[in-house]
Design a protein that fits this description.
The protein has a domain of about 60 residues. It contains five helices and no strands.
Length: about 90
């Protein structure tokens, strides 16, 4: 019954209350590649678009590349400075 209620809500102009079931429904629509233009409810359309963006970010190869582990070898290349006087501008 809730599924049918969400479908009716998606085609209405009423602002829904934000619930976990509503987010799950929008995630379901997103996973099944339902175009946001089919929804007349602007709030649900926004949630669907945000869900699409979140899925693209999770699948992005840059997301995996951003998981950099700082090892002692990598940390040895850093030079920590205490004041601006410690900066050597000639080392470029």
């Amino acid at each position: 019954m809730e599924f049918m209620d969400f479908i009716q809500l998606a085609t209405s102009r009423k602002k829904p209350t934000q619930t976990d079931q509503l987010r799950e429904f929008c995630n379901y629509l997103s996973q099944n590649k339902v175009p946001p233009t089919l929804l007349t409810n602007s709030y649900m359309r926004t949630v669907l678009i945000a869900s699409n963006i979140a899925q693209k970010i999770e699948k992005s190869p840059a997301r995996e590349a951003s998981k950099v582990v700082f090892t002692p070898e990598k940390m040895s290349k850093f030079k920590w400075l205490n004041t601006i006087k410690d900066v050597d501008f000639d080392d470029e």
